[in-house]
Amino acid sequence: KEAQIAVIDAVPKEDDPESVKLLLEDHVDPKEAQTVAKRIEHLSYNRVYSVEEGSYDASIMKNSTKAINLVGQQNYVLLRTGSNGFETSLVVFPSEVAPKPGMVQYIKDSG
Question: With a threshold of 0.85, does the pTM exceed it?
């Protein structure tokens, strides 16, 4: 299953002439760090991508990483914002964290 993500740059070019790419990499648990190969992609802005469902770390700068969980057959927007002295940041929509497998059934059963 794949999720669709739209990667959009909303920072005016005059505020940031050196537009950087979005870095998307597999989220790896620190316990697995030495045994798992991490996939890393540099995504261009103002494009739509199909991405395998799973957990990822998204960043526009190495020091500001945002963990996201993409669910197959869902649509997401990753939006780079900031201008006029405001810090550049990454906004992810929808922002809620997807439940882990089995959690949906538990929520339905308990209601």
Answer: no
